[in-house]
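Morning run. Coffee first, then this:
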Amino acid sequence: MVIAVCAAVVLAVLLWERFQRIRLLTRLDDMLDAAIRGEFQENQFDESRLAAVETRLAQYLAVSESSAKSLEAEKDKIKALISDISHQIKTPLANLLLYTQLLGESIPGDSRIEALEGQITKLQFLTDALVKTSRLESGILVMRPRPGLLDPLLSDVAAQFESLAEEKGLELRLDCQNVQAVFDPRWTAEAVCNLLDNAVKYAPAGQITLRAMSYVMFARIDVADCGPGIPEDEQPKLFQRFYRGSASRNESPNQAGGVGIGLYLVRQIAERQGGYVRVCSCPGQGTLFSIFLPRA
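And here it is:
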């Protein structure tokens, strides 16, 4: 009888300890889940086994949550500041460009005026890109992907660059036949325009191809050129903010663009639509940029 009672007591103690461990682990798991969701709040905990560990974890999560919120608030302030500054200088830049163009007409062939016009155009391009990027990152501008055909979008984009390509002696070829995807027309056009702008800018001659094709889960938009190519060690850095490759650094002073924000914006646009972007290039063999967008 005594042995049975002792066995029952030991079993009860073991079951209680197991229950306490499960209860503690469940509470810790709930705390971590709340922290991941950004909803964690420190509470008062009852004294129990391993309460010290639980309390220290709660304090750590509370500090981490506070630090994350402070960091996010500072990032929002910086984005808002960039957007405000960029917006305020757009009008003065437009006026500067207008006056420079008028001066160039009165003194034709002056290389200093051409260089000045190129730098103002580059600054204008950077300002526009920063405004778009900051508004996209801060959520002011929201993407609204919807099912549709890529053909009309790519035709419109190709038409925008056709005359510019002809001026450089480039042939712009469009290949797209009933390719379906889920995409935001405005922002996808922005991404393709950035890729085509780079292709026209850096390809010395030959053909630029804009095409789309379908896969099972994704639609793919390609922009291929026959330019100088991109070294392999530079390719992982291309989509970083403000990164400029060797081709961009070696451009002439009066060339617009090359500020290192266009490809970063392309990646942001692709990822925010559930897609991604890829580059394939070899020096001397041209470059292929591909945007993958979901089909459903």
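The helical segments are 2-37, 51-106, 111-138, 151-167, 185-202, 246-249, 262-271. Good start to the day.
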